[in-house]
Amino acid sequence: MKKLMLLVVVMSSLNIAAQTKTDLQKHFEKYYEQMKKQGDIQGVINAMTHLDVLAPSQARKDTLAYVYVSEGRNMEALNTIGIEASGTDSDLNTEIKAIALNALGERARALEFYNKLYKKEASPILAYEIADLLLQTGDIAGAQEKVEYGLANVTDEMRRTFYETQQPYQTSLRAGFLYLKAILTFSEDKDANQEIAIATLNRALAIDPNFNLARISKEALLSRTKGED
Predict the structure, then answer these.
(1) What's the pLDDT score for residue 99?
(2) Which of 67, 100, 102, 123 has the CB geometry, 3.0–4.6 Å to 74, for a possible disulfide?
């Protein structure tokens, strides 16, 4: 009889615990939706963290990491999903790792994830990120290949955000590729190709006169010319 009573108590406790967990999950699901409506990013993060504790899933972790990386909280994003590549990684998971590692200065590791996405489905947007990273790591030939692909496949509607100013801004992705082409051309032979690089930057600025990165690069090249006179 005592054993039966003990079993009833244990089963009742488990049932209450299950109900409590279900109630909590419903509460945080509602809280999550409310935070989204209010545009409260920290509230969204808090809700998703609680939901992942209550009902863990890789999809939820990926979404939480995406919120972190969208807010520039790159280390928190990587702490959420890890930094190792896996054959089961979703495209979102791979993209988050690429963006966060790049932002943290881990260019070689970021390239690994960008290349993984590019091999799965090439696009001008990915080609730009890879070309930019290859240029920074000194792989001129690899960067040129991606720039040529980008210029051949980019559309006028495609845009990219740049962050070198205090206030991030968007410009034409085609102008972005022309900027990279100018820098690559100049890098090949600084003296012989300077005028060609300036002309290419002028093409980028003709598309978007407010393209700050192209403008300051052109000014730097013109200043170099004046310094030689």
Answers:
(1) 96
(2) 100
pLDDT, mean over the chain: 89
Choose the weakest-confidence range: 2-16, 25-39, 92-106: 2-16
- Using alpha carbons, select from 223, 225, 224, 133 the residue that is nearest to residue 180: 133
Give the residue among 178, 228, 216 at the shortest CA–CA distance from 199.
178
